[in-house]
Amino acid sequence: MPSPQIETTETAFRKPKTICAEAWIWWAVRCASGQSFRVCDDLDAQGFATLAPAARTIFIRYGRKIEREYPVFGAYVFVGALPGMGVFKRTHEKIEAVLGDSRGPISIRGQAIKPIVELEAEGFWSPRGDVATEFKRGDMVRICAAKGADLVGEFDSFPSEIRALVWVSMFGARRLVPVDACKLEPA
Predict the structure, then answer these.
(1) For 14-34, how does the pLDDT look when each residue is reduced to its tens digit (9 = 90+)?
(2) 49 DSSP assignment
(3) Are 17 and 82 within one domain?
(4) Cβ count near 102 (within 10 Å)
(5) Going by C-beta distance under 8 Å and a sequence separation of 6 or more, which residues neighbour residue 181?
(6) Does one domain contain both 102 and 12?
């Protein structure tokens, strides 16, 4: 059976931004559900700097691999403004709140935003494409982040680029368990 192709168009995905984070005053805002990318695009056009780190995930639907993009922090977006500019709930109709306390919105230093920009540029939140070449059948692996975290088992195979099969001893029997490929590490 031929390997299914990933259904994607590179132009449809957001490009990581190169922002000089230190020059801006930043706020965290909560947007309406599913509107964080739209809010970023609109605020960018208004002269604000925005940051909504995006991750990509690959999943299989009806035998086809599909790559989708989603915001890492859900409905939360970082909005930067030059001194003298402010970010308020009325700045955009899809902003539900600017995070703050009883004294008002709390600004975030640019030095705190800079690592987030760097992690997004490195693709930190997206699955790695080189995982499939890392393990051979019979290698001992550890499941590092899943329901069976810290379980050690014997690697079997990669049925797809995003899934791995691992033999794990559970309840007195050996079982073949499917695991996300990016959640394995050498034991």
Answers:
(1) 665 656 666 678 889 999 988
(2) E
(3) yes
(4) 4
(5) 127, 131, 132, 158, 161, 162, 163, 164
(6) yes
Virtual CA dihedral for 184, 185, 186, 187, nearest 10 degrees?
-90
Strand order from edge to edge, sheet including 49-51: 49-51, 76-81, 25-31, 95-98
CB 71 within 8 A of CB 52: yes
- In whole angstroms, what is the distance from residue 125 CA to residue 114 CA? 16
* Length, in residues, of the chain: 187
Q: Could you tell me the CA-to-CA distances from 119 to 72, 88, 124 in Å, in that order? A: 11, 27, 5
Range of the domain at 80: 6-121
- Per residue in 145-160, pLDDT (tens digit) is 656 677 888 988 877 6
Q: What is the mean pLDDT of residues 57-82?
A: 80
User: Whole-angstrom distance between the N-terminal and C-terminal Cα of the chain?
Assistant: 32
Query: Backbone phi, then psi, for 62, in 5-degree steps?
Result: 55, 40
Same domain, yes or no: 98 and 41 = yes
Q: Report, in angstroms and rounded to the nearest whole number, the Rg of the chain calculated over CA atoms.
A: 21
pTM here is: 0.58
